Amino acid sequence: MDSDRTTKVEFAVQMTCESCADQVRAALQGKPEVKSVSIDVSKEEVLVESSLSSTEVQALIENTGRRAVLKGIGGSERDLGSAVAMLAGAGNIQGVVRFLQLSDKACLIDGTIDGLDPGPHGLHVHTLGDLTQDCLSCGEHYNPFGRQHGGPGDAERHVGDLGNIIAGPDGRASFRLEDSQLKVWDVIGRSLVVDAGEDDLGRGGHPLSRETGNSGKRLVCGIIARSAGLFQNPKQICACDGVTLWEERDRPIAGKGRSKAGTDVPAANL
């Protein structure tokens, strides 16, 4: 289900003076979904508590003309773990999906994926973190209890059944979901897959409805890796490819062109 719970997101933001901070603060505090804003100009850090997605917060900051890089995400009360999947697929499809364990019974899934065909697309956690054959080697839906396929609100479902995300006319799907069965510590090292079509949530008449949701071919995928929580990412140089934080901002989030050598190397600790 969609989530309106507040979380905290930490950004590195290019700022040189208090007037820069004032502009960033004004852009953020003008939104009713923003609960608090804390800015440290000397460290070029901005901490925001809100019910907006991390992509929406980043867009608000960057609308002031300053670059922003997300460094960490955490719950409003305690940090139980976070993870990230950087997705890349055929054509120009790419995206980032973040997982944040809010409590023992609530996991936040915050993501933005671009390049999709407009309309609904099935979203699932798969058992294997294996991309040797692209999405085909990710295994089946993560289903540790041997249940039938269902929707995210169903008791009878695969743990990895996250329902559908909706891409708009521009091909972007931006979502912020809360799930009661998924646990960050159980999915790190597995994979996240977006399908070409709509998941029927096990309610269709097709033979695949109770197995996969009959949502078509696997379109884009990525391995779920541990990511930094709040104040856990002090890097200024990316260890994976030797570029600065701001140089890294100019590179694709995944796929060719990600590293200096053009190999597919995800950003460390993001």
SSE topology string: EHEEHEEEEEEEEHEEH
Query: What is the total number of structural domains?
Result: 2
Specify the number of helices: 4
> What is the annotated CATH architecture of the largest domain?
Sandwich
Please provide the count of β strands. 13
Q: Helix/strand-derived class?
A: mainly beta
- Uncertain residue ranges: 237-247, 260-270
Oligomer: single chain
- What's the CATH H-level superfamily name of the largest domain? Superoxide dismutase, copper/zinc binding domain
- The order of strands across the largest sheet is 10-8-12-13-5-6-7-11
Helix content estimate = 10-25%
What is the first-to-last residue Cα distance? 25 Å
Name of the CATH first level of the largest domain:
Mainly Beta
Report the biggest beta sheet as strand number plus sense, adding barrel if it closes. Answer: 8 strands, antiparallel
CATH topology tier name of the largest domain = Immunoglobulin-like
* Strand fraction: 35-45%
Shape: elongated
Mean residue pLDDT: 85
Give me the Rg, rounded: 18 Å
List the helices and strands and how they pair.
Elements: E1 7-13, H1 18-29, E2 34-40, E3 45-50, H2 54-62, E4 68-75, E5 82-89, E6 94-103, E7 106-114, E8 119-126, E9 132-135, E10 161-167, E11 173-179, H3 184-187, E12 191-195, E13 218-226, H4 245-249
Antiparallel strand pairs: 1-3, 1-4, 2-3, 5-6, 5-13, 6-7, 7-11, 8-10, 8-12, 12-13
Summary?
The chain folds into two domains: 1-77 and 229-251, Alpha-Beta Plaits (2-Layer Sandwich); 81-223, Superoxide dismutase, copper/zinc binding domain (Immunoglobulin-like, Sandwich). It contains four helices and 13 strands.
